[in-house]
## 1
Amino acid sequence: MVKDKNSAERQKRSRDKKRSLGLVSVQVWVPAWGKKAIHDLEAHLCNRTTTSLTKDVQSMTKISTNNLMSQLLATEEAKNGEITITKLDGATPIIQAVVQDVNEFPIMITVGEEQILMITQLWGIDEIIDGKADELNAVLLRANLPVPLSSFSIMGDRYVIFGALSINTNVTEITEEIFTLAENVIDALEFCKEYLRS
């Protein structure tokens, strides 16, 4: 009987993959009625090992500022000039993302232990028309829910808009958030212009 070459190769690849996960082959003798129990136990043990290894790899490859910088520079959006990515060195390293046509509002990105924070400054307190600050604040508080992926806040004497992402967010979603934040900046300027000095 000729053995199927493809089947043999699949079995070899399967065995090699299991070995690479640290699994070992064990031969046991059981009564016929115990085969299913052994099969279920094997599946359970292999699944636990794979899950544990995946968690270990994720914790070892936790994203850093430099790693995120490299990933962003490799995106199509950075390569074709839709966004410009630069690193600002300091006590806390910051990635600056500038979206084409919204370049007067750079987005500052910091990578923390648990989250990635993106923030951009909008306007200063001194740019608000006299007597309109309370009205503007009420408008921004109401806008916090309908504005996707972003919230408004005040830092020092500047109004800002920001978004926070999980540290495990992939670069595609991070890039989408950069563009969403830039669009939200334009929207915020539009619906707040009646409260700001021209």
Note: The first strand starts at residue 83 and ends at 88.
## 2
Amino acid sequence: MNFFKKESTEKSITQENLSQNSESIQYGTETKNRQYVHPYTKRIKKGSWIFLAVLLIGFFYAFNISTKAKVDNSPAAQEALESHISTTLAPGTKLLQQDGNYVGGDIVISHSSEETTTNLLVWDYAAEDGDYVQILANDTPLGEPFMIKNKPVSFTVPTTGEIQVVGTHDGGGGITYAVHYGMNNTTYFNGMNQGGSNTYTLQRE
């Protein structure tokens, strides 16, 4: 009778030990998993941030490169370099790789347009080197000074009166710029020193 009680007691102790060992093994596994997964997840997050930063930098450089035009070496472009005027070259045409310290002058423009306003495009037809200009229409500033680039900036100006381009900052080599008036579909390639200005007198024929 005692034998059966002893055996039953031993079985109960053995089952209890197995249960505790099982819980201990399970808990140890969970602890081990937590220690293994946590740094792995941390590395994944760190890698994601690095990938995102590289991607953003790539977009930034791609955008900047895409906005810089190639130099036009066509006969029409060569003629425009000599005459500083063109009715055939597209707005945004780049004529020079570097600024050439060209100082132009004021221009009187006669046209037959009946419109009261026209589109004015302004851009740097040489190097994007940090030149800044400000546009005035009949002595009224059309915004703050801005850096001219190969990509044209658009303004709406009156078809009669004076349009002034003021050179507020020279990034090096003189301020070389071009303006295109929609009223006569003509581009004027001009230039000035820092602090200088060019006046375009618009008059209807």
Note: The longest strand covers residues 161-169.
## 3
Amino acid sequence: MNIKKKIIPRLEIKDGKLIKGMRMEGLRVVSANLEPIIKRYLNMSVKEIFIEDITTSIFDKKIDFKTIKTLSSFIDIPVSYAGGIKNLNHINKLFKIGVDKIYINSALNNNFDLINQSSEIYGSQSIGVLVQTKKVFNDWYIFFESGRIHPKIKLKDWILDIKNSQAGEVIISSIMNDGMFNGPDFELLNYVQSLKISIPIIYSGGIRHTNDIKKTLMKKVNSVAISHSLHFEKFY
């Protein structure tokens, strides 16, 4: 197995800068220049770059199409994007400026059918769902807007809805392990595996090294999205 082919660098951006937080809080600037960081990842022979503007939904900002277009212009592998996507017009514009795949999260709280509407136009291979989750008391729940909105929807119910939709992929992001450099959330991974998701899964949260990736892939996960350990050059 080529581990590098399973790694998807996850770049969280704000105003054209690379940012990172811990548990999706305390966001700080890692670099004001995204281009050299992306080129470093391209030299790793990764299969995809995932760009996520995590401030668009939180602050109700417009999607930074200019930055995304600039980044897409020199990335020669598939580019996926999440953040602030609210309608078909947003999705169409993202595809026109070079994005290959989009992930929808917060907009689904009010319009879940956006998955099916967009999949029917662009194909399910281009449409995914970003799921942010953590355990509350004794059950797993989903969250919107980078963990700030708790709709009181259980993860298993949300996953069932996704399975019954035309989504082509799902990212499972562990809120409690995000940016913590403490290893994957195996309790979450075991739970997700028990749900028998039929579409490809990407896991994100806490991955430090190749052994973490190997163990994660054993949980029926297809790829891993990594930010902290790559950005701070801790990955080994």
Note: The two ends are 16 Å apart (CA to CA).
## 4
Amino acid sequence: MKSVKHSCWNRALTAAALLLAGAAEPAWAFGQGGARFWFPPAVSSYGAQVDRLFLIVLAITGAVFFLVEGALLWFLIRYRRRDGSKAAYIHGSTRAELIWTVIPALIVLYLAVASQRVWAHIQGPPPPHQLELEVQGEQFAWNVRYAGPDGALHTADDLETINQLHLPVGQVVLINLASKDVIHSFFLPQFRIKRDAVPGMTSRIWVQATVTGNFEIVCAELCGLGHYRMRGFVTIETPEEFRAWLAQVQQEQHT
């Protein structure tokens, strides 16, 4: 019997150690593309801020979980039924009630201020941008529109691609997001961007890529029977490569 209990305790301690190690790993992964334990690498200028806020919330809620469950386990053992013992009525403690009211209130206030700061940075007025384009969702594709030589969108020299979004690294890009038919959700996991594209409404998001590479655009909203195949591709390249690609598209579409 003792060996069974000993084995159970070993398994429990091993599982707890693995859980704590897994929770700690993302904390030192900042500066290497974000929290790599379960997140995809962060490739936008504000990706690390989003990851950090997530991990702060996770650490606080995880600590509270272990404290509460530990206290519950302790009470179950300490005040278990015993022969000859009698339960006693306890009125309560004003001090204890203040503690478990004030501390959670301060934690929630801190999280509200921290999250509002990140939210205002990402969703507030965008910084000065070097490129503006349009992404329009349509069953079941992403239509991307770039301004032509005149520098204005929705003119005769616009450049259009389907499911191909090219962005220059290091530059602030303003994206006008719209939908042609139903609600779609423009989701770039590596950029930490997820915004609904709503028919009849144009929303604006901005992004600044920090590394070059190839990534996917995902529709995170069930938009019809072909939703599963609504995927696009993002290519982050140097400004020189981006200008060369844009010139090639210009030549293909307007010659």
Note: The CA atoms of residues 131 and 203 lie 16 Å apart.
